[in-house]
């Protein structure tokens, strides 16, 4: 089976075809109960470092540099990356994030990083 990664805002409704649902944010999203989230796993460790997250501050102008820096961080997180790749061999994975900007967020970068592994 080809590895299948999808991304979705945690505020969107859970769907049966989401597969394995993983929250990839370091902080728990506001206004979402643990029950509503329907998570299979919360992988805080794979999120960008606090320093990088604060530096980026959801500024689209910084997105390219943020992407490069985050990918660099991900190369240091082999264990969690391998963990997701292993799950993806068996089933679809939906990476969940809370950011409002659907085009400029770390889940986009993570998805691309995982697909290129």
Automatic annotation (TrEMBL):
Top-rank lineage group of the source organism: Bacteria
PANTHER family, alphabetized: CYTOPLASMIC PROTEIN, CYTOPLASMIC PROTEIN-RELATED
Organism from which the protein derives: Fodinibius salipaludis
Pfam families, alphabetized: DUF488-N3i
Protein name: MarR family transcriptional regulator
